[in-house]
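User: Predict TRAF-like family protein's structure from this.
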Amino acid sequence: MGASNSSAHETEQKKRNIFVWKIDGFTSLLEQGEGSTTTPFNMHGIRWYLSMNPTDRKTGDTSSEKHLSLFVSVHVSPDYMLETKFKYFIQACKYGRHAEREVSHTYMVSSLECGVACMLPLETVKDPSAGYLVHDTIVVGVELQKFAKVPCNGVERISCVGKKKSSSLSYNWCFEDFLELNKPSVTSEPFQIAGYTWRLKLKPQGGSNKEYVSLYLVLDRSASRLQPSSGLMVDVVFSINKSQSDGYNKQTFRYNFTGSNTAWGFRNFISREEFKDPANGYLIKGRCTFNASITIFGSTNDHASD
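Assistant:
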């Protein structure tokens, strides 16, 4: 009866795209000062890897408290991206509850790993009263809650996280060979937020100052039918993905887009020297990804989308 119940439980986990990792000998991992990675597991026909670092620290602070971190990695072909939402968990087996975090991420050639850094303090994990570590065994895992495989073609590719008529959206603009761009400026494919049409505009060699990369958000006035006197208050966060896990180059602005003021951004978004330096992790073998997180939170007219 016990074996039958176990088999049924494993089948249910596969249906829900849950991977559970039971790690024995947790203390020995701490003594070695090393993390660990699973063998590949299959979800949606993709081979994934779960890694754990039990002695992670907050970036740049070697004196900070040690934490347990979890990351999922995957090998991705340049022909597609994987848009995902994972729930990471650490089981408190003693009490039947979890520590949980949800993370959305688009896996691509330039971004093969994502997860939760410093998810739980190591002292909390080791505390017997917390119930996470039982008989030197800890149980962690992930649940793949959302998944989409997006084909990519050509020099650039895009992915959007958000609904067409939502008031917010995260837009990834990926370049396979940024150094081959030979135009003064390039414009992304159009995308929709709350019924309005937008594009990103990139100047690889900046404007008057050729030492910088320029990046702008542009409202397509004709497609959106926005009148010159109408306005949209928009929050925008521009960033560039880094191959390392220690953050992003990030710039933020708030701007009132109107029918006569349809573009705003940064003439000096990032210096070309900093951007091209391999040590910074922005441009890897010509590949890079720009991200725009956009939220429309105010309008001075009653624009209605179709």
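Residues 2-15 form the longest helix (14 residues).
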